[in-house]
């Protein structure tokens, strides 16, 4: 997918023309908020604290991320700086970086899709007007940040936005009208996505494929625990260090193992198991 419209180019040129040190800091903050790992961290915390609503957000986030990775690998659109449309603004910090993005993984935008799926999904579930007042401007600013840094075309971002909203609406419908079918639907989606992994062994696809497969396997087992969160929120807050410790221990095990495609997939698969089944078993054990 190499066609670049004049509108795409004009918008990117505009954002390139307004670059300044101050704006780089501002847009860097919003781009960081759209990072997959940041969104994933927020989603898992809400899953631990928010009951059924948190479960819906987890379904939305992992399925959206996996779909995005598959489309990126299949379409393989070069990023704007690779096509010479604009220069990439080079930023490299421990939290946010414009390097090592995958030069041919431009379409659709992961930041746009991940942030819109999570924020729209949360807004639909929460049903509060003020949540929409936060979600809409935040999504737009995250989108603009990717144009500012020259790492996505506007069409990448529009596609990511549309897909993120579609996934959020899809799971809202499932959780509202077909709640008992949610695990079967997730399993079918995971099976489809995992089929792409051997043909496109990209790290992002391995990670999201592992996350989705883990969710499809461990979330049904977690539901068998049949434990409702305590009504007192101060008790639920204890879940954060307990769940973080369990997931962190699984993550650290793989730090000391050799780099390997199969192990990389397994790491994210088991990490979901630790954050869902194992963490919830401990929540039930300690009555938190």
In sequence order, what are the helices and strands, one letter per element? HHHHHHHHHHHH
Question: Pairing-aware structural class of the strands and helices?
Answer: mainly alpha
Percent in strands: under 5%
| Annotated CATH architecture of the domain at 6-177 | Up-down Bundle
Number of helical elements: 12
Distance between the termini: 50 Å
Q: If you compute it from the alpha carbons, what radius of gyration comes out, rounded to the nearest whole angstrom? A: 19 Å
Q: Main sheet, how many strands, which sense, barrel?
A: none
Could you explain how this protein is built, in words?
This protein has 288 residues and is an all-alpha fold. It has a domain at 6-177: Phosphatidic acid phosphatase type 2/haloperoxidase (Vanadium-containing Chloroperoxidase, domain 1), CATH 1.20.144. Helix content is 72%, strand content 0%. It has twelve helices and no strands. Helix 4 runs antiparallel to helix 7 and helix 11 runs antiparallel to helix 12. The chain is globular and about 55 Å long.
List the helices and strands and how they pair.
Blueprint: H1 6-17, H2 21-33, H3 36-49, H4 52-75, H5 110-126, H6 129-148, H7 154-177, H8 182-196, H9 203-223, H10 233-237, H11 239-255, H12 261-286
Helix pairs in contact: 2-6, 3-4, 4-5, 4-7, 4-8, 4-9, 5-6, 5-7, 8-9, 9-12, 11-12
């Amino acid at each position: 997918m190499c066609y670049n419209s004049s509108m795409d180019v004009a918008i990117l040129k505009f954002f390139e023309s307004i670059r300044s040190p101050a704006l780089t800091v501002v847009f860097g903050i919003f781009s960081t908020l759209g990072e997959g790992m940041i969104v994933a961290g927020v989603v898992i915390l809400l899953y631990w604290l928010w009951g059924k609503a948190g479960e819906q957000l987890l379904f939305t986030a992992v399925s959206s991320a996996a779909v995005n990775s598959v489309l990126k690998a299949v379409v393989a659109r070069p990023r704007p700086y690779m096509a010479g449309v604009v220069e990439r603004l080079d930023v490299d910090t421990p939290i946010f970086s414009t390097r090592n993005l995958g030069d041919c993984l431009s379409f659709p935008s992961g930041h746009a899709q991940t942030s819109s799926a999570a924020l729209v999904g949360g807004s639909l579930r929460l049903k509060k007007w003020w949540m929409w007042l936060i979600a809409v401007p935040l999504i737009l600013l995250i989108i603009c940040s990717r144009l500012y840094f020259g790492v996505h075309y506007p069409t990448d971002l529009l596609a990511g936005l549309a897909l993120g909203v579609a996934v959020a609406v899809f799971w809202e419908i499932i959780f509202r009208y077909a709640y008992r079918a949610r695990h079967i639907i997730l399993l079918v989606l995971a099976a489809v996505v995992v089929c792409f992994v051997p043909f496109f062994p990209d790290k992002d696809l391995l990670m999201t494929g592992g996350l989705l497969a883990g969710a499809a396997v461990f979330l049904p087992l977690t539901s068998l625990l049949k434990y409702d969160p305590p009504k007192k929120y101060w008790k639920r807050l204890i879940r954060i260090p307990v769940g973080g410790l369990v997931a962190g221990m699984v993550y650290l095990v793989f730090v000391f193992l050799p780099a390997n495609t199969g192990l990389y997939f397994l790491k994210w698969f088991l990490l979901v198991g630790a954050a869902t089944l194992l963490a919830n078993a401990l929540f039930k054990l300690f009555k938190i």
